[in-house]
Amino acid sequence: MTLPDISCLVEESLGIQWYFTLSEQQIMEYSRRDKGSWSEPKQVATRPVKLFSATIDRNDKLCLVAYNTSKQLMYYEWDGQQWYQRQLYQISSRFENITRLELLNGSNCLHLFYYIENALKRAHESLIHSYLDDTGWHSNVLMNFLTDQSVTPQLIQNDAKGNLFCVYTRIIRNQTRCSFIYFENAKAAWSKPSTLFQKPGICRDFAGLADSSGHLHMVWVEEAGSVYQLNYKKIEPAAVTGALPGTVCIFDGTVPIYSPSLYIGKELHCFWVQEKKGMVSRSDSIGRTWEKPLLLFEGSLTAYRRVSVSLDGMTRIRTEIGDGYPEFGWTLQILLSEDKSGLDKKEIQKQGADLQMEKPLQASSLPIKELNARMDAIHKEIDTLNRQLDELHTALYQLQDYIRQKDRSAFHVEAQIRKLSFELEQIRSMRAGAVRAGTEQHSLKENNDKAKQDASIEQESEETGKPLKNVDTGSGEILLGNVSILINPDEHPEED
């Protein structure tokens, strides 16, 4: 897969070369060479870039994709004078990020793959497959995973017929499980995932090429404690659901292995870097046995991606190891072959040894090995600090998300309390209204009963013609049987 610190050399069918890299400010730059010296570096865009991938089609049209620090996935196309650009996707969540990017030229369209990771636990991650044809860009979610599965796309390649190979790994209980899916161009369909192998260590630095028969040859590095192992496997898509060929060990030891690459010809060759040493091992076309490694070069080495298009329109992508920019004069493959380029291998190795004695090292009285050991220790400390910062950022994002969820929960609880309080006030109001209505109805009933009673008494008096008894008629006199009682009679003043 494309890494942010690996540069890319693109070659047109007529030999014109383009060199793409990132500046110290992470700005994507390019230079052009046509049988002469390189042009001055120019910027493709002004925004810093995290990842980029480049390719070229059968018409020598340059195409780029880049993921910048604004979380935009941008597409760039060279029209002969300037870069045409278009935004393909925008990451909107602060927890998401694009961590893998690959652009491939197929037989009839342009393929783009990118992986969206998530910093939250138990969140969804996606492998996206987009392609550009005559009608425009089209995108599909190829696979979905959970963050706990620790999925990493490792290798995406195509063959001469436009078929696609995708290899990815998952970490399951400290075991690395490698799986494979295959896109058959004639049917425009992807196969179901198939397990290639499961290893107890960490698997990294995958590289591979497809041969003329449509088989994928793959190498990778396995770390198990302090032991490093360089492995090989051949994948035949037609038999991927059956018994797969076993994994073959090319080389193992206690010295770290980096930047493996394959070359397919009459024989298979695997190149890699080990303590600034360029190594190679050879096998037959079957790849079942590999010869003892051979030292090709010791000195300064550069690993870069090389994208080329042949006269038949086939685009090839592979990792090269050699002197790199700006010369690109030799590679380990050239050193292995006969002296077709006119380069003297001894002279190249002498130049590489001279590079180890440049002024910064001459100014020091320390041995080179001790300086290298110190530099390695510093790099390890930097890597450790970077991992700790990543873990801190992840924890911070998780804490922010937890606080946001808690705030949202408290808001819902407060809203529910307000709703219940409002309903309770409504119930109280309804109850008070019912009590008042009942009291008024009771008073009205008592008044009606009393009025009916008075009317009945008066009617009875009128009917009998007798004065009412035990009743105050308003004159202040009450009749109790034959006795007449005056209530508050007027007092007459005594006469003089």
Commentary on this structure:
With 496 residues, the protein is α+β, with helices and mostly antiparallel strands. Residues 350-366 have low confidence and may be disordered. The strands form seven sheets. It has a six-stranded mixed sheet with strand order 4-3-2-1-26-27, with no helix packed on it. Strands 13, 14, 15, 16 and 17 form a five-stranded antiparallel sheet that branches. It folds into two domains: 8-344, Neuraminidase (6 Propeller); 357-486. It contains four helices and 29 strands.
- What's the level 1 CATH class of the largest domain? Mainly Beta
Largest sheet: number of strands, sense, barrel closure: 6 strands, mixed
Number of strands: 29
Cα radius of gyration in angstroms:
44 Å
- Domain count: the total is 2
Taking the alpha carbons of the first and last residues, their distance comes to 138 Å
| Amount of helix | 10-25%
**What name does CATH use for the topology of the largest domain?**
Neuraminidase
Helix segment tally: 4
Mean pLDDT equals 82
